[in-house]
Design goal:
Blueprint lengths: L27 E5 L3 E6 L17 H8 L4 E2 L8 E7 L2 H13 L3 E9 L6 E5 L2 E3 L5 E3 L8 E10 L4 E8 L6 H9 L12 H5 L6 E9 L6 E5 L5
Length: about 230
Amino acid sequence: MSNRATVTPVEPNPADDFVAPPCKEAIEILYQDASILLINKPSGLLSLSGKNPLNKDSVHYRLVQTHPSAKLLHRLDLGTSGIMLVALTKEANSALTRQFQARTIAKQYTAVLLGHTEQDRLTIQAPIARGLFPRQIICEESGKSASSHLEVIEKMDNPARSRVIFSPLTGRTHQLRIHSQWLGHPILGCDLYGTQASETLAPRLLLHANKLSFEHPDTGQEITIECACPF
């Protein structure tokens, strides 16, 4: 009998090769008490640090320097700016996690899309599945249900663009970005789900989390916070 150990080769992870550009913008604290933080994340900052040591800088890394107990309850994509909810106690983390799981936390985003949509109000229902990293795909067979409500608030010309409010009813990875692509109107500045035209029309991803509503984990009080869109 051989005593040799069998070594299974490890497939390289494309995520390990990605290095986020430095982000010099600071995190803005919108609200703070003993249990929670509400912050404004700048575009270009990771929510969580990556395995690559060059991707150490992130929302979580910065926050634990001053708030060691901080736990992120959700994430925003690298290019997305806006409101994030952070728990500072185990009790708050548990209570707010239950709210996210029950989909009772209402989120609202502002985005600028390429072109003009046919309807000014619609709900996009297109299931999302994991694709070739880092992309997701729309897939009826294997995708998880995903719904996003869209309302156009301004139509602009030269070139044709639409400023919209998104209210996601589910929270799939890249949901608003891939739903916009599926609709035929990608978000400006999107490097994964855009076209050459949409990607070059903006210096950043034009997606901002501008409003969040939830129940305070200690008091049960309904909290609504807004953060002005920077574009």
